[in-house]
Design brief:
By secondary structure, the protein is mainly α. It is built from 21 helices and 2 strands. The longest helix has 36 residues.
């Protein structure tokens, strides 16, 4: 960030330490000020009153939005999209849809391509981020509040001084206070992560999830310009290649109605299994030092949110990772077929994007640390190889027919041996034959008789 959010700064009140101590006996103002980079002391507590009264869910999204939009590179002074940029994006998306048309049975979304500023990306995608982050944050924040409330009764085995226990006990229901603090901390960290993502993201579906308006492809010209600057490829080719990927994603999400819920349900399944280690809470409380404004920030970053996933959570994360890999692998396969030939740079751009998606950037890592979500397809190459094998055996129509129902999709184990998946599912023919050799109606009728599985 370039400065403290919401104008937190030097106070007009007395700098006398005694005055500060009277208004902020716990030193929370200092600690919260340290968390967000404020130079202020006890006055921060008064300035945060409205934010601490947030009641819209487990994450303080007012704070998250403010921090994200005041982050460096997305600070409100970003220039608007020019008419030329808007035209270039719209033209690239129209051409991309034409190139994709013969290479998939999924029709185009019909929406005109949009050019977004970074702030526009933040505004358009926040509802989706709330849907993704709130379930995870809710479990963590509630568990923190409960652990604090119970642990304070015995001082966490002596970690909390008796005088601090007494003051906190007289401050009202501790659980509610800690849930507000947890929501505040989550809001700050989510805001920082979204602000960082806004400086990196190239399109509305780049993270593999439908984050924007359904059926409306969108690119971020400012970030595409930065991305292109490091490549020895004409900017127009980079834009067109990214438009192909965006439009392919849009076709998939628009015409596979269960896919979004499938991805988001995996996130929710992960959230349902969250447990906060009471020992981590104890360590965090014991490390709080009112004389050290950065102690809260260190405490929140040292174990409270870095949770060991349970077996059920690991299964949910594996399901999410596999589904993201299948989405990205399908897009990679279709876009490569469309771009190879017309775009001389297509092979190089394909490899660049593959590495970018597989490794993730600093902002994606922030989300992984915060709530344990890995929004990247680690097995993109294997998934692309599987889709290519299915297309070779069944043709384009047979390949795309697998998206009819989640139980028809390949599993994580199938990514290890695409040929075995093709044989097991009865694919016939070769060389792009449209005859899959599989009775899809019979397959769908039989789904109700199969034992429930994690699918993708």
């Amino acid at each position: 960030m370039t400065g403290p959010p919401f104008g937190f700064g030097p106070s007009d009140r007395s700098d006398d330490p005694g005055d500060e101590g009277e208004d902020d006996p716990l030193g929370l103002g200092k600690m919260l000020g340290g968390l967000f980079g404020s130079a202020g002391g006890g006055d921060v507590l008064g300035q945060l009153t409205s934010l601490m009264s947030w009641s819209g869910g487990p994450v303080n999204w007012d704070l998250a939005t403010s921090i994200a939009t005041t982050a460096e590179g997305a600070d409100g002074v970003e220039p608007d999209v020019t008419a030329e940029q808007a035209r270039e994006v719209a033209d690239a998306c129209r051409l991309a849809d034409l190139w994709l048309e013969p290479l998939t049975t999924l029709p185009g979304s019909g929406g005109e391509g949009q050019a977004w500023t970074r702030l526009g990306w933040l505004a358009a995608t926040q509802p989706a981020w709330r849907q993704l982050v709130d379930p995870v944050a809710g479990r963590v924040v509630t568990a923190m509040g409960t652990a604090m409330e119970h642990g304070m009764a015995d001082g966490f085995g002596g970690a909390v001084p008796p005088e601090l226990q007494g003051m906190l006990a007289g401050a009202g229901p501790l659980k509610g206070v800690m849930e507000q603090v947890g929501g505040f901390v989550f809001g700050a960290q989510v805001g920082q992560a979204l602000g960082a993502l806004a400086r990196e993201v190239l399109a509305s579906t780049e993270v593999g999830l439908p984050l924007g308006e359904p059926g409306r492809p969108a690119l971020v010209p400012a970030n595409i310009a930065s991305f292109s600057a490091g490549l020895e490829v004409p900017a127009g080719e980079v834009r067109l290649y990214l438009a192909l990927r965006e439009c392919a994603h849009q076709r998939l999400f628009a015409h596979v109605p269960w896919l979004k819920a499938h991805l988001y349900d995996a996130v929710d399944a992960y959230a349902r299994g969250i447990e906060v280690d009471p020992a981590a809470i104890e360590r965090a409380v014991g490390s709080l030092d009112p004389s050290d404004p950065e102690s809260l920030q260190r405490a929140m970053g040292e174990g409270v949110f870095e949770l060991q996933p349970t077996e059920a959570q690991q299964a949910a994360l594996a399901r999410l990772e596999t589904a993201l890999a299948l989405v990205e692998g399908w897009v990679d396969t279709v876009v490569d077929a469309a771009a190879r030939g017309p775009l001389a740079s297509a092979p190089a751009l394909r490899e660049t994007v593959r590495r970018r998606r597989a490794s993730g950037g600093p902002a994606e890592q922030t989300f992984a640390t915060l709530v344990g979500l890995q929004l990247r397809p680690r097995r993109l190459r294997e998934a692309a190889a599987l889709w290519a094998a299915v297309e070779d055996a069944r043709g384009i129509e047979g390949r795309d027919a697998l998206w009819v129902h989640p139980d028809l999709l390949p599993s994580a184990a199938d990514l290890d041996d695409p040929a075995a998946f093709v044989r097991r599912t009865g694919a016939g023919g070769s060389g792009g034959s449209q005859d899959s050799g599989t009775d899809w109606d019979a397959e769908l009728r039989g789904l109700g008789d199969r034992p429930e599985t994690d699918g993708a």
